[in-house]
């Protein structure tokens, strides 16, 4: 969000500098359209490459196109929005776009989480940057030593002395006290072996 706010500030300041003869409101909507086009590209190249991964590319493109088209339509429709009813219609257009974009983001995050869950259930770790745009999740490969027994698991996290991990050999998630356990995290480059010892 901070990246998008910063990018919008740069875009709007630049356009305001060069479009001094343009109405401020028009410049604002042009900035929104430019942000819709550049924002996903910047996020995809920095913190959220998942935006342009194969399963999610269509959603990203659809939301981007929807915002750009709505911003362009707003610029045109404002010329004819001389009555309160027409101004309300333009506002409702944005309400619809925001609602649809929110719904798309929820579906996006849900699909991403489901994909990551299937990956963990098959015994594979989540790669670095396992982002969903809603949650930052992880499932790190680890060798767990419990007394003399040692087994491969995917570390899910810990809290108040309790640890949670997924054990592929049992096909289940286990939560237990960390006392007596030794964890040896496996480097990502060798995590595909799923063996310990």
From TrEMBL:
Keywords of this entry: Membrane, Transmembrane, Transmembrane helix
Transmembrane segments: 28-52, 59-77, 89-109
Source species: Actinoplanes awajinensis subsp. mycoplanecinus
Keyword field contains Transmembrane helix: yes
Protein name as catalogued: Uncharacterized protein
């Amino acid at each position: 969000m901070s990246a998008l706010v910063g990018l919008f500030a740069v875009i709007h300041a630049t356009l305001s500098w060069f479009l001094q003869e343009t109405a401020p409101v028009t410049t604002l909507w042009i900035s929104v359209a430019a942000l819709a086009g550049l924002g996903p590209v910047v996020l995809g190249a920095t913190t959220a490459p998942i935006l342009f991964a194969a399963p999610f590319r269509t959603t990203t493109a659809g939301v981007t196109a929807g915002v750009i088209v709505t911003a362009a339509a707003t610029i045109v429709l404002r010329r004819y929005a001389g009555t309160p009813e027409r101004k309300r219609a333009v506002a409702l257009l944005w309400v619809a776009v925001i609602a649809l974009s929110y719904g798309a983001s929820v579906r996006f995050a849900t699909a991403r989480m489901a994909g990551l869950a299937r990956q963990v259930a098959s015994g594979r770790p989540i790669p670095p940057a396992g982002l969903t745009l809603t949650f930052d999740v992880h499932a790190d490969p680890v060798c767990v030593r419990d007394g003399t027994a040692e087994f491969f698991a995917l570390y899910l996290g810990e809290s108040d002395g309790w640890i949670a991990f997924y054990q592929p050999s049992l096909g289940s998630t286990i939560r237990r006290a960390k006392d007596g356990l030794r964890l040896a995290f496996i480097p990502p480059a060798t995590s595909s072996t799923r063996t310990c010892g």
